[in-house]
Amino acid sequence: MEIVKIKIGDLTPYEKNAKQHPQEQIEQIKLSIQKYSMCDPIGVWGEKNIIVEGHGRYLALKELGYDEVECIRLDHLTDKERKEYTLVHNKTTMDTGFDLDLLVPELEELDFLSDFDFNFGIDTDAEEETEIVEDKAHEVDELDEQERIFKERMASGELSDDDEEYQAFLEKFEAKKTTDDCYTPDNIYNAVKKMVC
Q1: pLDDT tens digit string along 123-152?
Q2: pLDDT tens profile 178-195
Q3: Which of 11, 58, 9, 10 is nearest to 38 (CA)?
Q4: CA angle at residue 26 from 128 to 30, to 5 degrees?
Q5: Fewer CB within 10 Å, N side or C side of the chain?
Q6: Residues 72/98, Cβ–Cβ less than 8 Å
Q7: Which residue ranges form the domains of the chain, and what is each CATH number?
Q8: All residues at 6 or more sequence positions from 2 whose CB lies less than 8 Å from its CB, including other chains
Q9: Is residue 14 within 8 Å of residue 55, measured between CB atoms?
């Protein structure tokens, strides 16, 4: 893929881009560009250089006063495909969370959260969030140990699928979505259920 420089005034935001870019996000993108440089070219298409992906970066770069922007040409796409790709690109970045086993050591090693107004799905400050993430990682370790014990007991014939203790263990991970219970995201529930079943 070839990277080309295009004058920022020659780019055309896609008028039907459904992805929202609130000012708070633009400020985070600006900070990222200032701290790490522009590492992610904007995808453009056609003679009018319609932005396919990178609307947030475009807005941030404009506010930062950039004259030229690094872009990748997506002219190999049909008009229909570039419209689809705009949605696919935006949606696929939103559909996943973080692997806590990998995130916790990274947060412990890096000191950047104070620069960014991020949270990793927990509504608290960065220090509290790191503690909560560590606690959750410890809980996962405890569950791994419970899972190992259940697997050993099942392998030895001491425990079966219809055993009340085993079913009670599985019920801990059923997705709870009321204010009276803890919320277990479906992806965590399914991962744990897959491990123990």
Answers
A1: 445 555 556 656 665 665 666 666 667 677
A2: 434 444 555 555 655 555
A3: 58
A4: 90
A5: N
A6: no
A7: 3-92 (3.90.1530.10), 100-196 (no CATH)
A8: 72, 73
A9: yes
